[in-house]
């Protein structure tokens, strides 16, 4: 690969937030026609670097050059006009607008200043077809699942004629097929000479698509490497600053068939969301759910937590019928639910990290019995340490990096010591180290007798953790497979695709 | 990921139009009930009178719709209306200015005021409620500084606008103000649905932060919205001058609440990003028809009038909710 | 025009009962409520069907109401205008529909006096003048300055403007009368008290208080008492309206002088309405009978006050 | 020093002090507090006394706003409370009977609780937008108040009732004692107990709160009920202060003043975090402003201009963006900012 002149060059970038120095003298360059991965632990400063580049945050020190000329963008609009198209980490779209509009708002095809709606819808349809996405483009975006929203955000960014495309964790809630689609598009863009900055915590993805890697640690530059010259283990070591011991090994999960059923869903269903299903989860059992986007995994989780009202069927615990009318009721039965959409359904932005962590516990105790400051301190300190949450517990949770926010949400439910823990995409946006940490935690918890319903887009992860895997297809639970040696990702894929019993 | 995963979405009224449709139906229902209850109610002129009597409110509410759609609020509209009538009356009656320059001047004045408030709201990140509240004090205060008396307008142009009736048929007529209001509604509808500005208004109202990250011109949109509202208030003030033929510092007290109520009754969400101009038109009509019903009733004491307005509002909102919720429950979604 | 009443088949009462549409300003004060009651009661006694509409202090609402009266084809329209100006359009519509109009309580400034038949009501300027005159008479021997504080009605409202003007005109004759503070008390007791407390703190030597209505005066009395002074003695108090509470305070010696503004226009209004509909000639201006009260007079009439 | 400036109460306090200074400049004995007839007397005491109802209403409003709501009906509730209490007392054989007055007050407060619960019901259970839900009671409530008083001003003569808003206890105005008690109670409920956290969570993200097991509806109903209760007590104070109830004017536009006080105090209308002390400061600023208008003799015609001016200054000063963009811009050429920053120890996340 002949080194051409970098299209983006950032040098000596410093960004200080109240309470955190997010970037400290970082140099970075991006060459045309390459896919450049930006790597680092949660809170390393990846998103901040991107935001500084595109003018969301002003730089405190340092210089940014675009195609050799110094620039200082006043905001994303200016960056976009200069040819930098960005998908930020959290899906940043307008739920009240239609899917098509979210793709085109601000740059709609017009004739004499009048928006040509037909054209908007037609082009949106076309564009989404390219991503193999079949959605009603006139439906409001908020009616789509997070994954679809993420695809829409990507489609919007890709459709802009840009010299630089920035994707901050675009794949965090996509499944394998979607990711493959995305990579196909990325490769095509790369061939057209577009520079792509790509952030992901999936090492496999990085190795599949990236040409070059820049690693950040604690807001400092560790180095820039060619992907093919940097083996995975070294990459991880550079990211976390030490060797990651035994990442892949997870021990101790004999099939716990003998334990009592903890919760049984009988013909539970909800019209338009998920077809009636029957599912039993035993104490100490990890049940994984696999399926494509919108196949209804989240819906099952929400029904079991009482977040939505079931249309029919019943739930039994300990042989007795229980009604899960509200999250409260579910919590009374010691069920906990860690939602996939941490921003809308999980965290309360304005509250501090500490408050967010004790929120569910406090809700459980009621308003008149406050969690004492000492107890709260103790819990917070314990889980901040256990999950390695980086950030000041007394700062608003919104100032944390995406991955650390996810850990806060997890901590909230872990202190509840539930009997059934529902985890919907808990490893979304979490770095390798922390992911291994969380996986180990799940195993530990289930060994201790807790039942876990584990939802993840990564089949590997589902397979590694679960005793039993439920497969969903078109909102129907089509199969429940015991996770023995015969079960591989391939057989699972087959199930998801065909639905026929093998 | 096949087409079968999609719930059928295209039956009947699309969900996003349900609030507006419900409001429309309820409006018709109100009219029919009134027609049965009162003699000489069910005539075309009663409906036209609702337009004649509320043309200015309609224009003001159109401006308010922009603001509310963008997630803001504008409390200054009533005062700006009053200020407009006051300035017009003083200039024409007191200083002998001709009508057209005055009209131009007050329109510019309203827009500038709106622009200034929008700029403060955006650049200094102060809540719209407070900025426009200060604007409300300012405009009303300016009225009183100009004069505390009510000033008659005798200008021939204004009188002509006030007293001309455009005949639509036997015993049916509208005022020119109605036409002006109609034009404003049409233009505003076009802007909201067929221009980038309009769509940016919805986007900013939906999620300002996202809109910013999506690269939309948030600053321009927010300032434009308040400028439009200021302009509409001034225009509404001119229509009110036509209607009253006077300028007075106590005109249009509380009109901001009427305008907000009209927009919200029409199904818009105060949190922004959701609602339609047609809803606003219906909202104004509902408020107007309520008043008509009250004066046809004609036996209510002052306090029963207020209680009755409250009850009508309640009944209306409740029905709107109940019907709207039942309709929108049918399609899926959490 | 005028006399064509029989042709109006409308009116919801049917038959030949006279239908009157009456648009009231609102119910903003006890005075106004008494006024409304008087109109409603006398309509009943006079056998007139009353269509009553409350405008909640807004002119546009009054115009709407009048327009709907025209639509309902009432026989006669009466209303108390919120303000003087801006009535031409709708009054012309009434004229075109051949419905006679009677004004009560307050005039309109239309050049075309044929738009209404007659105007029945009191004269706010005159009330202010009466108040001022009493003051001038009381202090005619006084040589030093007379420090006056004024509690105005709602800023911009007609009674506030006119009473202030009338009062100011009379006392301007002598430079010893000085209005040292003047502030709106919104016609309410609470505001009257609050403003007076502030006056008492910032001005040490207040001789006279002129309040645009009884209620503000009553509020101010509490403030004066709270400051350890004697209302009616240390500070002389003049008010306007003569509602019952005010008369009581006058009789108790806490107020010194009240100018009456009578709300009981009902009987006269019904009388005029009948005449107007029958096509009889009526005077352009009918002034209500109003008087003034001193402390002695108040004691005499207190028991017979209706409102 | 910079610590101090960053405190969010710094600017409201500064503004309050500024207004006071203005008063001192215009009025000789503004800061004087004497004992007259066995109670405290002076302009400062007046500000507290007349500010008491506003503080109460703003207190309730703070919690409502923290849940991302708004309550327009407080003015009407003020009127209803005054009207009902005065009517009940005027019906008493002996208006000075303490039990009779207590009963009247009890009935009135019970009614305000019902009214507040009604608002809460509309918002939480029916799901009507707060501004419209409370607009209904705002319009109808004032009619109700007038219905109770029959459009007249009900005058009473009851010394126990007079105590609430106009009386003194241990030389202190009783209304201030009530305010102190209620503020202390609220602070206890929200800051010592967990109610405040629930309110902030519901206001910050209602769906997330529900999924964390908070009964958001219950919280909403409680908050609206509390707000109406505060307004009701304020209504008692206002009517007691002048020994009469005015259905039309009592509490007119108090909702605007209350909202203004809340916002000046630093609570965002977008919900979430709230500050009780800020609200109290805000209410005091507004009341001081009103008193200033009276005592420095601003003519009624320009009162609103004056108010607009002060509100604008207050809000601009309080806005960090304003200070940054206008104040700092001037300062920059004098001392380039970044230099000292880089010398600071880098904050590491270890
Ligand atoms: N607005 C803000 N205010 C204060 N601190 C912030 C803000 N945004 C980010 N930070 C801090 O800056 C640091 C870097 O955050 P950043 O979001 O860049 O991390 P990241 O590398 O993207 O991590 P992740 O993989 O979890 O998304 C973190 O310590 C975070 O707490
Ligand atoms: N490819 C798609 N085409 C159309 N609609 C989709 C698609 N994917 C998801 N949806 C919509 O998203 C909604 C949410 O589905 P749900 O949250 O149960 O999915 P899931 O299995 O949890 O998937 P994920 O969490 O990965 O998005 C569904 O109602 C569906 O309408
Ligand atoms: Mg990030
Ligand atoms: Mg999901």
CATH topology of the largest domain in chain A: Rossmann fold
- Order of strands in the sheet with most strands of chain A: 6-9-10-3-11-12
Largest sheet of chain A: 6 strands, mixed
Q: What is the total tally of β strands of chain C?
A: 12
**Low-confidence runs of chain C (pLDDT<50, min 5 residues)?**
1-14
CATH class of the largest domain in chain A: Alpha Beta
In total, how many domains does the architecture of chain A comprise?
A: 3
Which two protein chains have the largest interface (Cβ within 8 Å of the partner's Cβ), and how many residues from each?
A: B-C, 48 and 46 residues
Distance between the termini of chain A: 46 Å
Rg of chain A, rounded, reads 23 Å
Ligands, deduplicated: adenosine-5'-triphosphate, magnesium ion
Helix content of chain A: 25-40%
Distance between the termini of chain C: 38 Å
| Class of secondary structure makeup of chain A | alpha/beta
Textual characterization of the structure:
The complex is a heterotetramer of chains A (about 500), B (about 325), C (about 300) and D (about 350). Chain A is built from 17 helices and 22 strands. Chain A folds into three domains: about 10-240, P-loop containing nucleotide triphosphate hydrolases (Rossmann fold, 3-Layer(aba) Sandwich); about 245-335 and about 420-500, P-loop containing nucleotide triphosphate hydrolases (Rossmann fold, 3-Layer(aba) Sandwich), CATH 3.40.50; about 345-415, no CATH class. In chain A, the strands form five sheets. Chain A has a six-stranded mixed sheet with strand order 6-9-10-3-11-12, with helices on both faces. A six-stranded mixed sheet of chain A has the order 18-19-20-15-21-22, with helices on both faces. Chain A is α/β, with parallel strands linked by helices and about 500 residues long. Helix content of chain A is about 35%, strand content about 25%. Chain B has a two-stranded antiparallel ribbon. Chain B has one domain: ABC transporter involved in vitamin B12 uptake, BtuC (Orthogonal Bundle), CATH 1.10.3470. Chain B has about 325 residues and is mainly alpha-helical. Helix content of chain B is about 70%, strand content about 5%. Chain C is of the alpha/beta class and about 300 residues long. Chain C is built from ten helices and twelve strands. In chain C, the strands form two sheets. Chain C has a six-stranded parallel sheet, with helices on both faces. A six-stranded mixed sheet of chain C has the order 7-6-8-9-10-12, sandwiched between helices. In chain C, α3 (about 90-95) links the parallel β3 (about 75-80) and β4 (about 100-105). Chain C starts with 18 loop residues before the first strand and ends in a 6-residue tail after the last helix. Mean pLDDT of chain C is about 85; it is low at about 1-15. Chain D has about 350 residues and is mainly alpha-helical. Helix content of chain D is about 70%, strand content about 5%. Chain D has a two-stranded antiparallel sheet with strand order 1-2. A two-stranded antiparallel ribbon of chain D has the order 3-6. Classes of the chains: A alpha/beta (about 500), B mainly alpha (about 325), C alpha/beta (about 300), D mainly alpha (about 350). The structure holds adenosine-5'-triphosphate (ATP) (2 copies) and magnesium ion (2 copies).
């Amino acid at each position: 690969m002949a080194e051409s002149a970098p299209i983006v060059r950032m040098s000596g970038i410093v960004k200080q937030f109240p309470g955190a120095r997010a970037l400290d003298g970082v140099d970075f360059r991006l060459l045309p026609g390459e896919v450049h991965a930006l790597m680092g632990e949660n809170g390393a400063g990846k998103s901040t670097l991107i935001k500084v580049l595109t003018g969301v945050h002003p730089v405190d020190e340092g210089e940014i050059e675009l195609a050799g000329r110094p620039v200082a963008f006043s905001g994303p609009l200016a960056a976009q006009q200069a040819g930098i198209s960005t998908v930020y980490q959290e899906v940043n779209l307008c739920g009240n607008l239609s899917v098509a509009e979210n793709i085109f708002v601000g740059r709609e095809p017009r004739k004499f200043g009048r928006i040509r709606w037909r054209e908007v819808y037609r082009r949106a349809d076309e564009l989404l077809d390219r991503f193999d996405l079949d959605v009603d483009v006139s439906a409001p975006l908020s009616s789509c699942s997070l994954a679809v929203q993420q695809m829409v955000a990507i489609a919007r960014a890709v459709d802009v004629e840009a010299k630089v495309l920035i994707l901050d964790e675009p794949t965090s809630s996509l499944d394998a097929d979607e990711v493959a689609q995305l990579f196909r598009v990325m490769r095509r863009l790369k061939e057209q000479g577009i520079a792509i900055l790509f952030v992901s915590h999936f090492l496999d993805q990085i190795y599949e698509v990236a040409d070059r890697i820049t690693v950040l640690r604690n807001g400092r530059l560790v180095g820039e490497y060619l992907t093919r010259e940097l083996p995975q283990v070294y990459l991880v070591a550079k990211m976390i600053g030490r060797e990651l011991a035994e990442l892949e090994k997870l021990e101790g999960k004999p099939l716990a068939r003998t334990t009592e059923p903890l919760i049984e869903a009988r013909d539970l269903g909800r019209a338009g969301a998920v077809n009636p299903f029957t599912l039993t989860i035993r104490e100490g059992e990890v049940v994984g759910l696999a399926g494509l986007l919108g196949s209804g995994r989240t819906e099952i989780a929400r029904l079991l937590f009482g977040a939505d009202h079931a249309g029919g069927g019943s739930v039994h615990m300990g042989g007795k019928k229980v009604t899960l009318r509200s999250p409260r009721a579910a919590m009374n039965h010691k069920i906990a639910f860690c939602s996939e959409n941490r921003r809308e359904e999980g965290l309360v932005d304005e509250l501090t990290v500490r408050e967010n962590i004790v929120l569910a516990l406090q809700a459980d105790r009621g308003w008149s019995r406050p969690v004492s400051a000492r107890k709260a301190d103790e819990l917070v300190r314990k889980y901040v340490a256990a999950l390695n949450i980086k950030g000041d517990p007394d700062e608003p949770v919104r100032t944390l990096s995406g991955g650390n926010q996810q850990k806060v949400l997890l901590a909230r439910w872990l202190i509840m010591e539930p009997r059934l823990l529902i985890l919907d995409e808990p490893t979304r946006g979490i770095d390798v180290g922390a992911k291994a940490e969380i996986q180990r935690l799940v195993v530990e918890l289930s060994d201790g007798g807790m039942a876990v319903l584990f939802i993840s887009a990564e089949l590997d992860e589902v397979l590694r953790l679960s005793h039993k895997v439920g497969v969903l297809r078109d909102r129907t639970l089509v199969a429940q497979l015991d996770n023995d040696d015969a079960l591989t990702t391939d057989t699972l894929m087959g199930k998801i695709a065909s639905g026929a019993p093998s | 990921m096949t087409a079968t995963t999609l719930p059928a979405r295209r039956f009947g009224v699309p969900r996003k139009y349900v609030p507006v449709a419900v409001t429309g139906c309820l409006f018709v229902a109100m009219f029919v009930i009134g027609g049965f209850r009162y003699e000489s109610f069910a005539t075309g002129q009663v409906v036209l009178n609702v337009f004649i009597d509320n043309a200015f409110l309609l224009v003001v509410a159109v401006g308010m719709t922009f603001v509310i759609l963008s997630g803001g609020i504008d409390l200054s509209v009533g005062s700006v209306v009053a200020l407009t009538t006051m300035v017009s009356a003083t200039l024409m009656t007191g200083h002998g200015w001709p009508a057209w320059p005055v009209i131009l001047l007050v329109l510019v004045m309203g827009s500038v005021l709106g622009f200034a408030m929008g700029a403060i709201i955006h650049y200094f990140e102060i809540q719209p409620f407070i900025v426009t509240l200060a604007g409300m004090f300012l405009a009303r205060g300016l009225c009183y500084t100009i004069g505390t008396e009510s000033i008659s307008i005798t200008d021939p142009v204004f009188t002509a606008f006030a007293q001309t009736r455009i005949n639509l048929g036997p015993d049916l007529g509208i005022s020119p103000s109605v036409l002006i209001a109609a034009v404003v509604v049409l233009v505003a509808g076009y802007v909201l649905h067929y221009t980038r500005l309009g769509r940016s208004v919805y986007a900013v109202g939906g999620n300002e932060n996202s809109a910013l990250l999506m690269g939309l011109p948030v600053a321009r949109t927010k300032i434009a919205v308040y400028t439009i509202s200021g302009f509409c208030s001034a225009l509404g003030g001119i229509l009110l001058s036509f209607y009253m033929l006077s300028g007075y510092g106590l005109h249009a007290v509380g009109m901001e609440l009427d305008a907000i109520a009209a927009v919200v009754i029409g199904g818009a969400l105060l949190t922004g990003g959701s609602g339609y101009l047609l809803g606003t038109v219906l909202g104004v009509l509902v408020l107007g028809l309520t008043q008509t019903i009250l004066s046809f009733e004609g036996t209510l004491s002052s306090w029963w009038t207020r209680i009755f307005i409250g009850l009508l509002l309640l009944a209306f909102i409740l029905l709107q909710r109940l019907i709207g919720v039942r309709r929108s429950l049918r399609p899926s979604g959490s | 025009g005028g006399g064509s009443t029989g042709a109006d088949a409308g009116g919801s009462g049917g038959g030949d009962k006279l239908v009157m549409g009456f648009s009231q300003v609102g119910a903003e004060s006890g005075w106004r409520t008494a006024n409304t009651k008087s109109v409603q009661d006398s309509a009943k006694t006079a056998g007139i069907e009353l269509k009553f509409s409350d405008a909640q202090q807004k002119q546009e609402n009054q115009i709407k109401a009048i327009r709907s009266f025209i639509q309902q084809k009432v026989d006669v329209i009466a209303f108390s205008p919120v303000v003087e100006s801006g009535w031409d359009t709708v009054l012309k519509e009434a004229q075109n529909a051949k419905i006679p109009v009677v004004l009560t309580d307050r005039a309109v400034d239309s050049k075309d006096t044929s738009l209404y038949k007659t105007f029945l009501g009191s004269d706010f300027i005159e009330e202010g003048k009466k108040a001022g005159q009493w003051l001038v008479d009381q202090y005619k021997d006084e040589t030093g300055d007379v420090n006056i504080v004024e509690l105005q009605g709602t800023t911009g409202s007609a009674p506030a403007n006119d009473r202030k003007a009338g009062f100011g005109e009379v006392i301007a004759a002598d430079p010893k009368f000085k209005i040292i503070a003047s502030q709106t008390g919104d016609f309410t007791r609470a505001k009257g008290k609050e403003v007076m407390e502030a006056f008492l703190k910032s001005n040490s030597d207040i001789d006279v208080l002129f309040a645009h209505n009884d209620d503000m005066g009553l509020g101010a009395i509490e403030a004066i008492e709270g400051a350890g002074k004697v209302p009616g003695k240390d500070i002389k108090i003049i008010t306007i309206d003569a509602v019952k509470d005010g008369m009581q305070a006058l009789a108790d010696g806490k107020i010194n002088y009240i100018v009456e503004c009578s709300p009981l226009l009902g009987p006269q209004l019904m009388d005029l309405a009948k005449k107007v509909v029958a096509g009889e000639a009526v005077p352009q201006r009918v002034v209500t009978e109003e008087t003034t009260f001193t402390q002695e007079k108040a004691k005499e009439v207190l028991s017979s006050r209706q409102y | 020093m910079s610590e101090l400036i960053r405190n969010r109460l710094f600017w409201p306090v500064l503004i309050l002090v500024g207004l006071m200074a203005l008063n001192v400049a215009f009025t000789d004995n503004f800061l004087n507090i004497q004992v007259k007839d066995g109670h405290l007397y002076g302009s400062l005491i007046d500000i507290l006394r007349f500010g008491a109802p506003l503080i109460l209403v703003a207190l309730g409003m703070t919690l409502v706003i923290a849940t991302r709501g708004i309550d327009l009906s407080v003015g009407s509730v003020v009127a209803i409370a005054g009207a009902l209490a005065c009517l009940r007392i005027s019906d008493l054989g002996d208006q000075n009977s303490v039990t009779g007055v207590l009963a009247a007050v009890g009935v009135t407060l019970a009614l305000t609780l019902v009214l507040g619960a009604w608002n809460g019901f509309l918002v939480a259970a029916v799901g009507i937008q707060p501004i419209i839900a409370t607009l209904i009671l705002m319009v109808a409530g004032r009619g109700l108040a007038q219905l109770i008083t029959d459009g007249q001003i009900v005058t009473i003569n009851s010394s126990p009732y007079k105590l609430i808003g106009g009386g003194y206890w241990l030389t202190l105005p009783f209304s201030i004692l009530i305010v102190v008690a209620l503020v202390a109670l609220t602070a206890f409920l929200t800051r010592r107990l967990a109610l405040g956290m629930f309110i902030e969570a519901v206001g910050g993200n209602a769906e997330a709160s529900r999924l964390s097991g908070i009964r958001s509806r219950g919280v909403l109903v409680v908050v609206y009920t509390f707000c109406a209760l505060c307004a009701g007590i304020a209504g008692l104070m206002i009517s007691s202060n002048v020994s009469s109830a005015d259905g039309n004017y009592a509490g007119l536009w108090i909702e605007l003043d209350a909202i203004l006080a809340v916002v000046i105090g630093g609570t965002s209308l977008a919900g979430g975090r709230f500050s009780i002390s800020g609200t109290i400061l805000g209410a005091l600023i507004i009341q001081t402003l009103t008193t200033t208008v009276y005592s420095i003799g601003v003519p009624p015609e320009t009162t609103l201009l004056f108010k607009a001016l002060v509100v604008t200054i207050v809000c601009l000063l309080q806005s960090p963006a304003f200070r940054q963009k206008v104040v700092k811009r001037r300062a920059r050429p004098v001392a380039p900012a970044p230099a000292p920053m880089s010398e600071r120890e880098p904050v590491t996340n270890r």
